[in-house]
Amino acid sequence: MISEKEVRHVAKLARLELTDKEVEKYSAQLGDILKYVELMNEVDTTGIEPMPHAIPIYNVMRDDIVKYEETKEELMKNAPYEEDGFFRVPKIN
């Protein structure tokens, strides 16, 4: 079981305010979770490849092909204000 002191420390890190009753409750619950994790650590996983997801997920991507490349002069036409070949923007304080 995880100690109440540890629960209070985690709660402080998470900026949670817990009542004494909640600390007692979460101490028992977190202890049960840690027991289950320890039980899972006993399972022999030799030869089993780690997987990022429980089901296969494929990212559909297309090749990044330049179809039309605008010149700097064309892009600068969009600038409301230009200075020395750069966009001029208002100063931010």
Main attributes of the structure:
93 residues; mainly alpha; Histone, subunit A; two-stranded antiparallel sheet; 3 helices; 4% strand; elongated
**CATH fold call of the domain at 1-41:** Histone, subunit A
**Element order: H for helix, E for strand:** HHHEE
Class by SSE composition: mainly alpha
The CATH homology group name of the domain at 1-41: Glu-tRNAGln amidotransferase C subunit, N-terminal domain
Stretches with pLDDT under 50, minimum 5 residues: none
Largest sheet strand order = 1-2
From the alpha carbons, calculate the radius of gyration and give it in angstroms.
28 Å
How many H/I helical runs? 3
Residues in helix, %: 25-40%
- N-C termini distance: 52 Å
- Overall pLDDT level: 90
> How large a portion of the residues is in β-strands, by DSSP E?
under 5%
Number of strands: 2
Assigned CATH architecture of the domain at 1-41: Orthogonal Bundle
CATH C-level class of the domain at 1-41 is Mainly Alpha
Largest beta-sheet details: 2 strands, antiparallel
Can you tell me the overall shape?
Answer: elongated
Compose a concise summary of this entry.
The protein is mainly α.
What do you see in this structure?
The protein has helices at residues 4-13, 20-41, 72-76; strands at 82-83, 86-87. The chain is mainly alpha-helical and 93 residues long. The protein has a two-stranded antiparallel sheet.
Blueprint (SSEs and pairs):
Layout: H1 4-13, H2 20-41, H3 72-76, E1 82-83, E2 86-87
Antiparallel strand pairs: 1-2
